[in-house]
Amino acid sequence: MEHQRIRSNQLLFLLAIALLIVFGLSIFVGRYPEPFWMPPALLAQEALAQKLVFSLRLPRLVMALLLGMSLSACGEVLQMLFRNPIVEPGFLGVSQGAAFGAAFAILFIGGSQLNVEISAAVFALLGLGMSFLIARVLKFGGWVLRLVLSGIMVSALMSSGLGILKYLADPLTQLQEITFWMLGGLWSTTWKSVFYVLPAVLVSLTITFLMRWRLNVLSLGDATAFSLGASAKKERILLLVSAVVATAAVTSVSGIVSWVGLIVPHLSRRIFGSNAQYSLPGSLLIGGIFTIICDVIARTLMAGEIPLGILTSFLGAAIFVALMSQDRLKVEKDE
Amino acid sequence: MSNIVLSMTDLKFGYTENRSVLNALSMQVEAGTITAILGPNGAGKTTLLHTILGLLKPQSGDIYLNNTPIGNFSHRQLSRLIGLVPQAETIPFNFSVFEYVLLGRTPHMGIFNMPAKQDFKVVNQVLETLDLIKLKNRPMPELSGGERQMALVARALVQQPSVLLLDEPTSHLDLSNTGAILRVLKDLVKNGVTVVFTTHDPQAAIYSADHLILMQQGKVLAAGALDEIMTSEKLSQTYGTKVLVEEVNNRKVVLLS
Asked: What is the dihedral angle through the alpha carbons of A138, A143, A146, A147, rounded to the nearest 10 degrees?
């Protein structure tokens, strides 16, 4: 155990270094002055290069980092609280709520970036709130099942609303905008949007990080968690709300970026085991690295931008298949 | 009886208003003994344990721990005094035996804390005692039924409780594992722990318990020293079917007749 803890700490340290390297290198990768690489010397000399790096690439990199960390942490929190390894952050009506909010802003309150972000955040939180409220009135099953069911209901409700909005939208302008937003991407990121999501993300991720031992406890179910002195209800709600608030904040900027929150916690558990003491920080770091790399590919590979959501889904699904077809798949065996 | 560690008077509990599971239940548990709560399925045994634990709030009646009303303890204090070994727990993630048992140290940790040296030490000691040390890096889902049950007991023991509640600890086990678990319980009592376990198997009670409480439909039918309570008449009444209690080699044996 001693040996294992030292190994886990070493691995976390290596991942942190890897994240720093990926982040540092990504500053110089892009399509200026020519595709793929900007010589560091150029950054020191040229004003245009500096402007490009400091007002476009850097905020976007920071946002990719926050996005990846939030989605992965939220995924791991939900998977452990719901005791279900296939849950992901969009689960409680958050993604569909954000999508509805964004479409609503594009159609009715003018699709300025700030309007879209605020409306998406408001409806994402509304989705979460509705999931909780409906879960409370359902007269069926235990708390977890009720919450899962009401999350599915709210998602369906929001996506039917989204369907109506798409039907009403002007197909030449608004519909394109909605579709593009739903594919997910960070092209619109500015320092302003970074500072606007930063407080929510920092507070939420700090709470999640500090309470990661409780995640282990809560994953054992209510009676056991209670007998170990945990106030299952209160702690679960605190963890859920922090995780989902971070997701709602980043989603309001990025649009829907799927698969990160599902695949990264799995990857992290493969490396660190199920103990959230190590697998949660692992998820944060891997999520950051994965999303930064995907976003760099999204803005560099082709002359036009590839929507980030497409890349994360593509790479995520590919990694997932590779991971799940390996042997030693006793990882999440439910008995 | 002297030295009562746990007592309940007129305990009433129901999941709905008009259907009560515990019905004016009163019982006492003596310190440093093994008490078996025996009764048919649905008698309210699990509900009783969850009520003692504080997980379920009784509609009326009192529970005293060390002569103090249980409401006077904080949740965290209680979790250091009473340990629970639940019946057949689902473990959805791939914790190693060591990590899983380490979770039992949670009552001794703050809400933002991680386990420390002292916690590892206690876990290692308990794993040694229960002969689980060689399995400590094995994933929980790979354990056999008996090993798994032993790990559950270990997790409750690292809480260092003075009262250990076990819910049907032997119900899925073969004879040799049943014996192993019951022997562990007997050893615990020698170290001053008070053990209360539920079972629907009279033989498990005969093998290990000092006291016996017979439960039926949320009520105590009979309670006292095992030898006095374990009779054909009382068991037949408890289970609602004819049961014979015979003596073989000075030990009681329960037979369906």
From this structure: 120
Most distant CA pair in chain B, distance: 57
- A125 token code pair: 């939180």
**Domain regions of chain B by residue span:** 4-256
A201 CA: distance to closest CA in chain B (Å): 19
Q: Chain B residue closest to A233 (CA)?
A: B55
Q: Which of A84, A214, A223 sits opposite B86 (nearest CB)?
A: A223
Q: How much is the pTM?
A: 0.89
Structure tokens at B45: 């045994």
pLDDT of residue A334: 37
The CATH number for A2-324, chosen from 3.90.190.20, 1.10.3470.10, 3.40.50.620, 3.90.1150.10, is 1.10.3470.10
- Using a CB-CB cut-off of 8 Å, the residues of chain B touching A231 are 75
Distances (CA, A) of B58 to A223, A300, B15, B88, B221: 16, 64, 10, 24, 20
Instruction: Please indicate whether, in this complex, the C-beta atoms of B106 and A227 are within 8 angstroms of each other.
Output: no
Residue ranges of the domains in chain A?
A: 2-324
The CA-based dihedral angle spanning residues A242, B113, B134, A327, taken in that order and rounded to the nearest 10 degrees: 20
Cis preceding linkage at B69, omega within 30 = no
Q: Which tens digit of pLDDT belongs to each residue from B96-148?
A: 999 999 999 999 999 999 999 999 999 999 999 999 999 999 999 899 999 99
pLDDT in tens, A139-196: 887 777 888 889 999 999 999 999 999 999 999 889 988 888 888 889 888 898 899 8
> Cα angle at B77 between B121 and A225, to 5 degrees?
75
Superfamily, domain B4-256? P-loop containing nucleotide triphosphate hydrolases (3.40.50.300)
Q: What pLDDT shows up at residue B70?
A: 92
Residue A335 has pLDDT above 70, yes or no: no
